Amino acid sequence: MADIFVSYKAEDRRRVAPLVEALEAEGLSVWWDEQIGGGVAWRHTIEAELNAAKCVLVIWSKRSVGPEGAFVQDEASRAQQRHVYVPIVIDGAHVPLGFGETQAIPLARWGGNRSDQRYQAVLDAARAIIAGTPRPRYAHIYHPRISRRAMVAGGGAVTAAAVGGWFLLKADSAAVSNSIAVFPFANLSGDPAQAYFSDGLAEELRTALSRIPALKVMARTSSEKVRNDDIETAASKLNVANILTGSVRRSPSTIRISAQLVDGRNGLERWSEAYDRTAGDSLNIQTDIAQKVASALSIQLAKGAQSELTVGGTNNPEAQDLLLQVDRDRDSDSQAGVERRLALLDAALAIDPNYAEAYARKAFLLMIKAGTYTLTAEDANRGHSEALASSDRAIAIAPRMALGYAVRGNVLWQQLKLKSALANAHRAIALPGTNVEALGVFSRLSSRMGRSAAALQAADKLISLDPLNPGSHEAKATVLYYARQYAASQASARRSLEIAPGGERVRAFLGYALLEDGKLKEASAEFRKLEPASYRRLLGQAVIAARAGQRSVALDNLQAMKRRYGDAALFQYAEIYAQLGLVDEAFKELDLALSARDSGVAGIRVDPFLDPLRADPRFAAFERKLDFP
């Protein structure tokens, strides 16, 4: 039996969580519906806990006081009858008739500070009810505001605060009105292993919403980084006008999905709905939510647009569930992780052989496997051919799915079929539902083709959709590096490292940009932060030594690289030989890299380390061997 039962609307869970955490930190036991076990009869569980709790905190909000808040109102009525009712208001809601006789405690915009006078009032009331003593009276609870008189009297400090507020308002107004971020949905199933489903459902909604041309939809990584922020803070960080949030409770027989569209500027609800359906009905719910969001934002869907929302998807909920499980390991690119994800996709495709998204995801993983875990060039070529066949199948099934073209472009790049690779990447970003993967492939490919303006435009769009993803800023840093804008490249690389200090690849590009900017000492310091045996570190150290006239040091780094990487770094050997002025050796390594289909060769037009070779007639002849657009 818990000391405290918390009654609230599921959609307010994010705002209620800090209160639960604070009360538990005080040593009180708290029950809320996050604790419902998977598969239990949740209505009976709630009723039993409600009847047994010593104190019931009822959270009144704009959601819980409305027609959709019937459960909260029923629970409040039961708490009143038992004389254990403590009302709390978390926004500008008016407590419903019949529940206002007990003074409500205001807790709007409370961030978890346990010394806050309002929280102390909640704690005192709860403890009194639990102990069976008279609850304390509070004639007034201070709610922090800046009065007009204080603004006049406060002088410079208040002026600074007002200026800061003006800038915040300006940032809010800059958010595109039809911009939206989808928060990960809360997993209320009581089983942490079910989190993949609630997170995956949010990603499916992002994909569907991104296919509505009038909407700007933030990407997954940035949306998940602000999942624990309040609505207004998250919207400000992402510069969006709207937040879609919700919760999922799933049992073997039923699924309950609640979704809310919230105004990011003030936290007020634009639309909400709860769906109680059979377990396999989540696919129809996703489509309905996307349509309702568009309607709430006054977006008129064109004729036939509904079918666009589900391009590349499946009608089989079991197949979709397997694909969502793939994302549970999305950060694991170990060989075992790749094989495990491929097995899940094969199982999904066995259920639905026309699941285009599963074929596209499979193609991407086959490409990683071929490029990372094969031991011979023959095995790598075979793996890339399998990946290409899988992406072709995805496109044949769903010719308007951007993901299929993005993956095919990436695979063709690995095969050095550059003209076709760029054409597929361009097709991917031209279709509705353009995602960050497509923009990333297009920007990287375009930059290596020498098309820096198009590459930079794609990189900037990538950042606008995924600003908190270090990979977005890394993509821009590489584009700027190959465009020879070294100072700007350094700034983008540092921004990426601010978000994720452990980024090895972007730190290497920071070192390369510093090197080309003549800052050899700073470049060397960055290379020393990389793993000692990293080919990126060995390459950077070799180039610095070559430019400093330390030929033996450069050759030592080259030999260390050859011992560790063998034929896997042929292109990098050519770069070092070029910097040493060993032109014949450099061209020999380039020919070997081309024979091995080393994708690094695609960058010969823009790579600064190859500049010493450009005046040689063999360079133009080598370039003609490549399939450049």
Descriptive labels:
five-stranded parallel beta sheet, Serine Threonine Protein Phosphatase 5, Tetratricopeptide repeat, six-stranded mixed beta sheet, alpha/beta, 629 residues, elongated, Rossmann fold, 9% strand
In words, what does this structure look like?
With 629 residues, the protein is of the alpha/beta class. Among the domains are: 4-131, Toll/interleukin-1 receptor homology (TIR) domain (Rossmann fold, 3-Layer(aba) Sandwich), CATH 3.40.50.10140; 176-307, Rossmann fold (3-Layer(aba) Sandwich), CATH 3.40.50.10610; 467-530, Serine Threonine Protein Phosphatase 5, Tetratricopeptide repeat (Alpha Horseshoe), CATH 1.25.40. Helix content is 56%, strand content 9%. The chain contains 28 helices and eleven strands. The protein has helices at 13-25, 42-52, 70-81, 117-131, 148-153, 155-174, 195-210, 220-225, 231-238, 282-296, 305-308, 317-326, 335-351, 356-372, 377-397, 402-414, 418-430, 436-448, 452-465, 470-482, 486-499, 504-516, 520-528, 535-547, 551-565, 570-580, 583-595, 617-624, and strands at 4-7, 30-31, 55-60, 85-89, 105-106, 179-182, 186-187, 216-217, 242-250, 254-263, 269-278. Strands 6, 7, 8, 9, 10 and 11 form a six-stranded mixed beta sheet that branches. A five-stranded parallel beta sheet has the order 2-1-3-4-5. Helix 1 links the parallel strand 1 (4-7) and strand 2 (30-31). Helix 19 (452-465) runs antiparallel to helix 20 (470-482), helix 24 runs antiparallel to helix 25 and helix 24 runs parallel beside helix 26 (570-580). The radius of gyration is 29 Å and the shape is elongated. Mean pLDDT is 87; it is low at 139-173.
